[in-house]
Predict the structure.
Amino acid sequence: MEESFKVVKTDVLVIGAGGAGMRASIAVKDAGLDVVMVSKSLLGKAHTVMAEGGIAAALGNVDPQDNWTVHYGDIIEEGVYISNWKMAEICAKEAPDRVFELEDYGALFDRTPDGRILQRAFGAHTYRRLCHVGDRTGLEIIKTLEDQVLHRDIKFFDEMYITKVVVKDGKACGAIGIKMNTGEFHYFEAKSVIIATGGCGRVYKVTSNSWESTGDGLGLAYEAGAVLKDMEMIQFHPTGMVYPPGVKGLLITEAVRGEGGILLNSKGERYMLRYSPQKKELDARDVVARANYKEIQEGRGTEHGGVYLDITSKGADYIKHKLPAMYMQFMEFAGVDITKEKMEVAPTVHYQMGGIRVDAETGHSSLEGLFAAGEVASGLHGANRLGGNSLADILVFGRRAGEGAVAYAKKANETGADKKAIESEIARIRSFLKKDGKNPYEFIDRLTSAMSDHVGIVRTREELEKAITIIEQLKQEYREVGTLGSVRYNHGLLGCLELGNMLIAAEAITRAAIMREESRGAHARIDFPKKDKNWLKNIEISKSDKGMTFNVVPVQEMPAEYKKYAKPEEY
Amino acid sequence: MTDINLKIYRYNPEEESTGKFVEYKVPYVDGMVVLDAVRYVQEKIDPTLAIRWNCKAAKCGSCSAEINNKPSLMCKTRVDSIGNNISVAPMGAYPNIKDLVTDISVNWSILRKIPKFTPMEGMEKPWRIHPGDVERSKEFKKCIECFLCQDVCHVVREHTTNYFGPRHMVKAASMDMHPLDALDRSEFLDDEGGIGFCNITKCCQDVCPEHIHITDNAIIQEKERAADLKYDPIAMLIKRRKSRKEKVVK
């Protein structure tokens, strides 16, 4: 049977409509090229909306000593020296411009008494650096960008789930997707393609991530032949909700600690004084998350398996003004008044530092014509991301990927639609629609449980191997998943397709975690508890005939004059 | 609490001409929200059930529905607050796509029409804004675009007018009350946006999950400004000489 599909032609296709995707689309439109933006969720609902505490930019409004070199040093040190130095430089230098640009677009940040943008303290930032809108910074950013996208008349297809990036003659030249509300297949023919699909937190059971963060972009890029990097580096945020069960994992912003919140165990001890006497609650996320984990493991946890986060000393007015969303979140979901009571918190999977390997300046991946930006890309954050740097990341590198894709598209030739490739992809999608298919949600449940149980905040080879056994088994059984119904708005079908990407992400994370026999940043191995200078390296991952292959490469050395901006690494 | 009797509106336009409620039994878990119960059905009973959700933290505004006939977010409605006989229907103000999912795309066309933030000219950068001046617009910027206010609004739902609806009044107000914005959108809202059709029943602010005082602080203000500009003879004189906002700059 001949399958029907719609063809949409454009210069640049942007997959994903969070901060990075929208900023990239704006860059393409402003350069005068045709752009089409597609997203899995509705416009304006992307995971960016969940960002709370702020965007890091060295404006020096509150602490005048701050400047880009200090921000650069913080990124390198807290990324434990495996970040891409060039990306760190670009981010630190350009973040202020992106913040001012947001103001031009209509965003309204909180102010200092003399009217400048207010900046708050955040974990492991040397100075107060996070520009913020209460604890709703992500919402402000996404609505501001949405406004720009709408008024620029940027073409977008929301609830369009992309299943494949099409490659011809070694170049990315388009993508295939399902428009969920109509069930129509689409082929987007483009001269360059940008992936900005966010992270893969949903491969874990307990996560702060939205429904859509299933690692789709990782799967798309990997299958198309692009190289992934640093996948073992998964950030656990120190403070996720623990109770009630329905909201387990939901984020409590670091701004609570930035505004003076302290961590206590069930004995009432402020244990961060023991783990990190200098930075205390505001040490890097990996340090605080492991401290929380250890307190809970060693029996000093709360009734529901967490520790306490206490901001009550700040008083009701201050809390309601500075942390209004947190106040509401606890009031409405848990019935806890955080102005009077302590919060129960525990680590939750929050962010993937790794992802598609990209060129620092253009966001170009290892596959010609394919670009990436935001959480799905790798390099900036190394082994650990600082709070507030992801919002800086999406805007700085979203714009750069947009411009990179424009430059590439201007030189690229039209490739035309490869009808055969499209039809075989449609057949693959349709093959999941069957009577006796196994429920994809059971598979997803098994996978996410395995990841949370065995590839957690502290790791051992033995545990990681257990996860691999389960992942391999799920891969074997994957062809048996299926669902009833049609292509139109069928979550079961979406689950089948997402599962494929989740398996790729999970395998990459786990195998890279087995390889890295040391503890660095977010990656903590009980069997290799020390940092090892032989591991000043990145693990690259790509697809070959033999399956997933791994390549260990040295970290690119920064120029001598940059070395003085970061403390030398100690072992 | 015992099991939940959950009635979900099911409608598949590919197979039937009208929808119907289907009842499911869902085990109760402490602290669960309606979205948990609906997802239980999707994950354990019928994966083809179409729902829309994303953040599950009342931050994205995707999971809007009518729960026991009241427009609400599924992720924010605790089961123990409404009892164990629950009905969930799609928003009635929008065309149904399938089951609980509706087509809300008309909102994008309306948002395109509302003049965007337009900074005053000649401002020295970086801009200085008094902290107090940020507050007025901030309330409206809390909007997560769940469109529950549109759903509950009888003008949007039951009449054919040019009224944009409460969400869009809030959007316009968020920019009109931006301390550096140069425009006044109230006349536009009166001429193009049908703000006159709002008869201030305040249903919209009752259902707003962000507790925005939509009618009191956005709609009434815009209505009054439009009335002043259009019908107040003194304001008309001033307007003839200079736009109000230009005066503010000086």
Residues 239-348 of chain A form a domain with the Flavocytochrome C3; Chain A, domain 1 fold (CATH 3.90.700.10).
